Amino acid sequence: MSDDCRSGDQQVTVRRAVEEDDEALLAIERSAWDASSGFPSYQETLQDTFFSRSGPEAHLVAEHKGAVVGYLRLQDKYPFPEGAGVLTINGLAVAHEARRLGVASALLDAATTEGRLRGARKISLHVHSTNTPARRLYERHGYIVEGTHPNEFLIEGDYIAALDMAKML
Ligand SMILES: CC(C)(COP(=O)(O)OP(=O)(O)OC[C@H]1O[C@@H](n2cnc3c(N)ncnc32)[C@H](O)[C@@H]1OP(=O)(O)O)[C@@H](O)C(=O)NCCC(=O)NCCS
Residue ranges per domain, the chain? Predict the structure, then answer.
C-alpha cells in the first residue's frame, strides 16, 4: 500500500512499516511525546526496539524527503467477533521537524482507506484532553467525541480528562 499526499511542494508518502524502520521509529517514539500528549511513565518502559509491543504489520509509516517521519498504529479494538469491524488507533506520532506538513493527515487518510478496505465500520482512539493539536487534527478528519472521562489521569500534578473519539467509515 502506498498513498501520496501533497502539502504545498512537500510530498508525504505513506506505506506499511517494515522491520528496517525500527530504529527511525524508536527515535520518533523517544522524542515525540510529552506530558500533554502521552504518559511520562511510558518513556521509561521503552525498550531497544520499537516493535516490541506490536510488529510492523500494525503500523503505517510516513516518509518525507526520504526519511521516516511518523507512524500510525492501527489495530482491531476487540479480540472477539462481536467487536469485529471496530479498529483503534493505538499510537500516532510525527517527528518534531516534520510537523504541520500534513504528515499526520496523510497517515489518518491512509488509515481510513485501510479501514474501508478491511470492511471496518469505525475507527476509535483515546486522546488526552490537554492535547489540543491532536484534538484539532482528529476533528478536522471527522472524528467526534464519544465520551469524556474526567480526572482520568494524574500527569505532572494535574488531573486530566481522557476523551474517546471515533469516526464512522
Ligand atoms: C498531533 C500530531 C500527530 C500532529 O501531526 P502533524 O503531522 O503535525 O499534523 P498535520 O500537519 O497533519 O496537521 C493537520 C491539522 O491538525 C491540526 N494541528 C496539527 N498540529 C497542530 C497544532 N500544534 N496546533 C493546532 N492545530 C494543530 C491543524 O488543524 C492542522 O492543519 P493546519 O496545519 O492546516 O492548520 C503531532 O503534533 C504529534 O506527533 N504530537 C505528539 C504525539 C501525539 O499527540 N499524538 C496523538 C496522540 S492521541
Answer: 2-168
Nearest residue by C-alpha to atom 19 in ligand 1: 133
Is the pLDDT assigned to residue 47 strictly greater than 90? Answer: no
- Sequence length of the chain is 169
pLDDT tier at 53, thresholds 50, 70, 90: confident
Among candidate residues 131, 129, 163, the one with its CA nearest the CA of residue 37: 131
Cα of 106 vs centre of ligand 1, distance in Å, is: 11
Superfamily of 2-168 according to CATH: Gcn5-related N-acetyltransferase (GNAT) (3.40.630.30)
CA-nearest residue for atom 22, ligand 1, is 133
Contact 112, 49 (CB under 8 A): no
Joined together, the cell numbers standing for residue 126 give 483515546
Q: Specify the ligand 1 atom closest to the Cα of 37.
A: 44
Average model confidence (pLDDT) for the chain? 94
pLDDT (average), residues 97-119: 98
pLDDT of residue 3: 52
